[in-house]
Amino acid sequence: MVERTVRGSHAPLSAKGSDPLEGGRGLFGVRNSRARGPGYACCVKRVALLGATGSIGRQALEIVEAHPELELVAASSGSQSIDGLAPHTQVGGDLTELLERAQPDVVLNAIVGFAGLPATLWALDRGVTLALANKESLVAAGDLALAARERGGGLLLPVDSEHSAAFQCLEGRDPATVATLVLTASGGPFRGRTRADLEHVTVDEALAHPTWRMGPKITIDSATLANKGLELIEAHFLFGLDYDRVQVVVHPTSTVHALVWFRDGAALAHIGYPDMRVPISYALTYPERAATPIAPLDLAAGVTLEFEAPDEDTFPMLALAREAGERGGTYPAAYNAANEVAVAAFLEGRLAFLGISDVVERALASVDGAAACDLTELVEADREARRAAESVLEPVA
Ligand code: NAD
Ligand code: MG
User: Fold this and answer.
1) Using the 8-state DSSP alphabet, how is residue 112 labeled?
2) Which of 23, 144, 233, 387 has a 20 to 30 Å separation from 135 between CA atoms?
3) Going by C-beta distance under 8 Å and a sequence separation of 6 or more, which residues neighbour residue 215?
4) Candidates 80, 97, 111: which one to mutate for ligand 1, based on the most atoms within 8 Å of Cβ?
């Protein structure tokens, strides 16, 4: 990080008074550095934003623009042009080259899918802080990623809302005092439906998420509960918890983002409106917890918290993830790869909604699953699972 003097004129200010980040005193009475006035010296973080054109990427840009102490030094997208967005930009290609050129302090990995893996490993290996939205890379490469973090010695900060919440509930606790981590799931657009109801659902129906506005892949993952399956495995690797200590419950309003039970029978929960700018801001400004424009929940207006068990018969992707996670080796990578193939096929109209879990189940049954010693072996395991999934893909009836 670079010590830099932030001048009053540096901040990209909007109209005074209209923005809670503006004018000095943010939520909870926390003063923003923006309001500290000319000459205030703070620590500038150089941010590389990968996946800048996506749902997380665009919200991250908003957070970066609101904080003069966050400097966007690099940005990437999969295919859209992003000329001029940052001093270093790249569309597609090997993103480790971009990161080498930019030498950021923080990498926000908001790429979707296995394609995010090289960037995740680049940051972890070098001890560069990794703000991780790209859960697929940690799910697929869990053991390799943790070994890279060990070597690099840097921070791995989850951006996924449930994991950011869990991280905050767990931070500073003695692991021996933690009983169970509870991840909440909205249940997606098909909560309460039966398998028969889901036989002919359309792509548009599956994309209509009740509480979150996200990219298409994660939105489909939320409808099948594969997203919570990926998050279960993500939590296992992030927090070192065995699978029997991570519970998933459906919580339709997505108000409680995660909850940790301790051995004395008490629980800590993280609550708030579902808004990804909160965990993005938390990770980018860690450990400062900068103010955001998101209002606190209006408790006086009446907030009802409902929880229920997930319907694992209608949504088999959750149990398949638990099984893949417990088997270990490259089964989580195969789960992720087969799911990516199946979701792409569903979005292209080549596969029925219920076919997604069938494809993943059959692919998982046919792969080797042996642990990968290095990245080459992991990439081969990913390819094997993709081939297996493609071979069982059947056209929509
Ligand atoms: P998105 O589809 O909106 O955006 C994906 C971004 O990745 C785009 O900028 C795209 O250009 C880029 N990209 C796609 N393929 C690429 C490739 N092969 N190489 C390089 N870049 C590529 O997705 P999103 O909803 O922003 O999700 C991004 C990640 O964050 C996913 O892993 C998702 O699971 C996770 N996440 C998203 C949310 C959310 O609210 N959107 C919440 C939690 C976690
Ligand atoms: Mg999540």
Assistant:
1) -
2) 387
3) 54, 55, 56, 112
4) 111
Residue 43: what pLDDT?
A: 82
In this predicted structure, which of 36-40, 76-80, 318-322 has the lowest mean pLDDT?
A: 36-40
Report whether pLDDT(8) > 80: no
**Cβ(300)–Cβ(348) below 8 Å:** no
C-alpha 375 chain-centroid distance: 22
Average pLDDT over residues 151-166: 98
Atom 35 in ligand 1: which residue has the minimum CA distance? 133
Residues with CB under 6 A from ligand 1: 51-57, 77-79, 92, 110-112, 115, 133-136, 160, 212, 214-215, 217-218, 276
As a whole number of angstroms, the longest Cα–Cα distance in the chain is 67
Tell me: cis bond preceding 287? Omega within 30 of 0 counts: yes
Q: What pairing do the DSSP bridges indicate for beta strands 106-109 and 40-50?
A: parallel
Residues 319 and 229: their CA atoms lie apart, in Å, by 7
Q: What is the pTM of this model?
A: 0.91
